[in-house]
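Researcher: Structure prediction, please.
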Amino acid sequence: MGFNMEAVAKLFKKSDAKKAAEKKEREARGKAKAKEIEARKNAKQELNCVARLANTQKDVDRERINKLKKTAAKKGSKK
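Model: Predicted structure follows.
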């Protein structure tokens, strides 16, 4: 069997180049996906932080309202 070694070498070079290009493409897609996941995670954390602050503010407002009610009740009972 007489193989043309130059032709075989060219075929291997082409397939190696194609595999390398596919690998780079997969890595790029993986990095993009990782960035997207990270962005989602950051957005979720930010949303949780805002929600936590809003709940804290509600608690503060509720305490303030309760104090005002108590002071109003005390003033009303003194009259």
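Model: The mean pLDDT is 87.
Researcher: Thanks, that helps.
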